[in-house]
Amino acid sequence: MQSQSNPPRFNAVLRWIIPLAATLALAAWFYIAPPGLLGKADAVGYAVCHRIDERSFHVFGRQLPLCARCTGEFNAAAIALIFQGFVSCRRNKLPSRGILAVMVVFFLAFAVDGSNSYLYLLKQSSPGILDAIPNLYVPNNTLRLFTGSGMGIALAAVLYPIVQQTIWRESDERPALGWKSFGILTAIVLIVDLLVLTDSPIVLYPVAILSTLGVLGLLTMVFSILWMIIMRTENSFDTLGQLWLSGAAGLTLALLLIVGIDLFRYTITGTWSGFPGLG
Length: 279
Known about the structure:
- A hairpin with a 2-residue loop joins β1 and β2.
- α3 (68-87) packs across α7.
- The chain has one domain (2-269).
- The protein has helices at 8-32, 37-46, 68-87, 97-125, 141-167, 179-196, 201-231, 244-269; strands at 58-59, 62-63, 91-93, 172-175.
- The strands form 2 sheets. Strands 1-2 form a two-stranded antiparallel ribbon. It has a two-stranded parallel ribbon with strand order 3-4.
- By secondary structure, the chain is mainly alpha-helical.
- The longest helix has 31 residues, at 201-231.
- The radius of gyration is 20 Å and the shape is globular.
């Protein structure tokens, strides 16, 4: 437990400071973010995504918080983390080499499509400069969604067992994903992606929120692990209840990062939309 690695008085101080810091960070995020639920989601997406309108899905004419690629990536990551939480529990080993090889393919598809799309964007925004470099194909939001989703699965499949390795005093020494569970997870994400392509508001609204939570969840997990390492409390937890302080610290750092990037970007661009001049 945490008290085994740090003095009791220091832990007592942290139990007051961290919740206060989390509350202040949350208040700052609420204060600077645009109004409404999707407005708050926009403020999260704004910190990690270019939010170019033409490269995003829309619901009732409103741009989603993340572009098509980031929507796929962080929605898939959120689904994968939730799925592993139910199926894998405390399993702490990376997937087999075969599954890792498939995830490398997912990453390569993400990289190739992203590079091709970025080249296309540069040629649109600065005509004549890169015309001699051919595009592999005309990029589109469907490919952005699918390649982003593959990357999201890969991120979550690698991060989840690392988190389990760091948290628990005793964990399950088995791969977090086997071929069967990996196949089921991929099928779930694929079905959700196909539903997104229907442009139905019934699908897009939940996906907008879930993808935003995916951003916040990934950042919180990474910062929570970093906090445990700095505080030397890794591999000292037995129950979920003992994680509240590290989780609150991770959430605080995640929100501070988001608020900092938001303020910096908004100061430069003056808009919550995509970068001016890019489309």
